[in-house]
């Protein structure tokens, strides 16, 4: 393997966080920024969630797209019509489907990878080792097209590698029930072909999150149109929770229902609405609160054909990381965006951002949440990236 090429930073991942890191570092650093992703097409947002209605106002997507000079340069040099001009024409105070945001990400990425300061590698990071005496990372990259491996050396390594829907074990064993991927349920064009139309099906939906409510909405739309024999059992432990706009801040900003999901929940899923609503024709709510969760599963799951969980997201695995050849145990520090090792010591030059490594925030009522969203990532990175750039 040839000697590693030096660069000022290595950024892994090209979703909204990875793109935002690159944009910020281009403003902060001299030298080359290596950017690594298999396809540079907007990450999971574009691959999986184009059909999902956002819980973010259009104006905040716009704020993200214009937050740093490299992004503004891409927008100014892109012919109209473009994803940026389309976004600008939308109602800025309303939400939109994520395909608008995904196209914006792709448009920005297309421009950023062409910049002279960016070394874009289509591939994956397979390993990275920190030389403690020099505080330099040697990052091994496998190309997507040829599977050849090569190395780059950098003082800064930033992971924006994303998360996937969490899966926990089936609560009742021995049942003839198929697990249904949440990503499929959140994409109606896939869901319509996945479930059979001509036989009775009952889908168990677990959770009351934003994703769970959207899953219920998509299943109801299917039942009232192409799949009339489809029914849903909705397992939930607590009442529906909504984001509430307070005086200058938002209660449950990162955990409460917003946008289309909130409208659907208020109008059709609340206890006083469900029996008379259209959704109530297809959904049976199963109350799992008060310690009766397992009993409810045992009673109701045997009649279900499919099972989908909407209970959060789990960080995707990182590649093998080491210090002087010894495996590295990591703990993320959401205040700085850095990491500590197993002994609590800061790991030089290693950082993270995005849904896998979000900022921890505390609201005026003392509630702790993790800030997830395009504009939230950008605001966080505008705070921490100058520290990352100055650290070497």
Describe the secondary-structure layout:
Blueprint: E1 5-6, E2 9-12, H1 16-28, E3 33-37, H2 43-48, E4 53-57, H3 58-65, H4 69-76, H5 83-89, E5 95-97, H6 98-112, E6 118-131, E7 136-143, E8 149-154, E9 157-159, E10 163-165, E11 178-179, H7 182-185, H8 188-194, E12 201-206, H9 210-223, E13 230-236, E14 244-245, E15 250-251, H10 259-269, E16 283-287, H11 293-300, E17 306-309, E18 313-315, E19 320-323, E20 326-327, E21 331-333, E22 338-340, E23 346-352, E24 359-362, E25 368-371, H12 374-390
Parallel strand pairs: 1-8, 2-3, 2-9, 3-6, 6-19, 9-23, 11-17, 12-13, 12-17, 13-16
Antiparallel strand pairs: 4-5, 6-7, 7-8, 10-18, 14-15, 19-20, 21-22, 22-23, 24-25
Helix pairs in contact: 1-6, 1-12, 4-6, 5-6, 9-10
Give the helix level as a range of percent: 25-40%
> What is the CA-based Rg, rounded?
23 Å
CATH C-level label of the largest domain: Alpha Beta
CATH architectural type of the largest domain: 3-Layer(bba) Sandwich
- In CATH terms, the superfamily of the largest domain is FAD/NAD(P)-binding domain
Poorly predicted segments: none
Distance between the termini: 27 Å
Strand fraction band? 25-35%
The best one-word shape is: globular
In the CATH hierarchy, the third-tier topology of the largest domain is known as: FAD/NAD(P)-binding domain
Count the beta strands: 25
The number of helical elements comes to 12
Main beta-sheet strand count, sense and barrel state = 12 strands, mixed
Structural class determined from secondary elements: alpha/beta
Mean pLDDT: 95
Number of domains: 2
């Amino acid at each position: 393997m040839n000697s590693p090429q030096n660069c000022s930073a290595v950024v892994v991942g090209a979703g909204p966080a990875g793109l935002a890191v690159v944009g910020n570092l281009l403003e902060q650093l001299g030298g080359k920024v290596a950017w690594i992703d298999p396809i540079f097409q907007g990450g999971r947002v574009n691959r999986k969630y184009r059909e999902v209605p956002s819980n973010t106002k259009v104006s905040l997507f716009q704020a993200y797209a214009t937050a740093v000079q490299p992004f503004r340069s891409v927008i100014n040099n892109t012919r109209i019509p473009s994803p940026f001009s389309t976004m600008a024409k939308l109602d800025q105070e309303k939400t939109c489907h994520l395909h608008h945001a995904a196209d914006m990400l792709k448009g920005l990425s297309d421009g950023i990878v062409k910049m002279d300061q960016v070394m874009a590698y289509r591939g994956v990071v397979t390993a990275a080792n920190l030389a403690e005496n020099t505080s330099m990372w040697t990052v091994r990259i496998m190309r997507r097209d040829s599977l050849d491996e090569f190395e780059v050396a950098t003082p800064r390594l930033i992971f924006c590698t994303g998360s996937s829907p969490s899966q926990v074990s089936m609560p009742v064993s021995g049942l003839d029930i198929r697990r249904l991927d949440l990503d499929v349920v959140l994409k109606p064009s896939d869901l319509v072909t996945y479930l059979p139309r001509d036989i009775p099906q009952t889908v168990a939906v677990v959770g009351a999150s934003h994703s769970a409510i959207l899953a219920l909405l998509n299943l109801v739309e299917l039942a009232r149109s192409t799949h009339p024999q489809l029914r849903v059992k909705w397992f939930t432990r607590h009442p529906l929770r909504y984001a509430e706009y307070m005086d200058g801040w938002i209660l449950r900003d990162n955990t409460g229902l917003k946008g289309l999901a909130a409208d659907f929940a208020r109008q059709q899923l609340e206890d006083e609405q469900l029996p008379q609503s259209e959704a109530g024709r297809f959904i049976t709510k199963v109350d799992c609160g008060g310690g009766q969760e397992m009993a409810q599963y045992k009673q109701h799951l045997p009649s279900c054909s499919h099972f989908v969980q909407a209970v959060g997201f789990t960080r995707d695995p990182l590649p093998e990381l080491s210090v002087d050849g010894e495996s590295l145990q990591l703990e993320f520090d959401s205040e700085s965006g850095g990491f500590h090792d197993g002994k609590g010591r800061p790991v030089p030059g290693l950082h993270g951002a995005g849904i896998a490594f979000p900022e921890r925030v505390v609201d005026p009522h003392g509630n702790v949440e993790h800030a997830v969203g395009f504009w939230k990532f950008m605001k966080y990175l505008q705070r921490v990236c100058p520290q990352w750039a100055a650290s070497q």
